[in-house]
Amino acid sequence: MTTILVTGGTGTLGRLVTERLRADGHEVRVLSRHTQPYAVDLREGGPELDAAVAGVDTIVHCATTPRGDDEQAAVNLIAAARQAGVAHLLYISIVGVDQVPFGYYKTKLAVEKRLAGSGLGWTVLRATQFHDLLVQLFQGLAKVPVMVLPAGVSDQPVEVAEVADRLAELAAGAPAGRVDDMAGPEVRTFESLARAFLKASGRRCAVVNVPLWGAAYRGFRAGGHLAPERAVGKGTFEDYLATRIRR
């Protein structure tokens, strides 16, 4: 079996990827900012990153931050991977990064382009939003009596465990470039998802749809972040709520 480094290996996705790879018999190193022995800040790189990458066959790059530092982190990781002779760098991206001009998406697309031009063997899997991200959003919006949602926007959430399974499968294989997107089983309006959350959590809150403005909103409203033709996920939002949300 191979030696695999999982960046962001303590996060929502990375933790599950790590579990699956170890269950399959791979030697797995977990890299995060605070987890020894591979405690590394990818934004800074340095000898700690070189040590984490040395002797690794494959890197599964799950680490991310909404603060816009992902591209610099990728630059450092790619440089370390080149130096160490890593054969395969696998990256999890987001459906619609080339369709929706949203700041975080632009950064994810920039990382994809860095990988494609790196000279390394690479694979990119784009997935739609995870269920837990929507729950976090709705929990924040439900703190006031009126939940305000972007009018005309839908989503297609996917179960994170299913994405972890797919990443583990890809990590065990050869570099494949950009593979088919992975999306949840249903395209749902934001309102229907929000009402499902409110029902499952027993919260009482009015729901109001409000038109927004800007290119990013237009991109979301046009469905650039959706992949109905790739609705390969099985777990629905209600399935997730039934197991994770307490009234």
UniProtKB/TrEMBL annotation:
Question: Which InterPro entries does its entry note?
Answer: Ergot_Alk_Oxidoreductase (IPR051604), NAD(P)-bd_dom (IPR016040), NAD(P)-bd_dom_sf (IPR036291)
Lineage: superkingdom: Bacteria
- Where in this chain does the record put each NAD(P)-binding domain? 8-132
Protein name (database record): NAD(P)H-binding protein
Naturally occurring in which organism (per UniProt)? Streptomyces asoensis
Question: Lineage in the entry?
Answer: Bacteria, Bacillati, Actinomycetota, Actinomycetes, Kitasatosporales
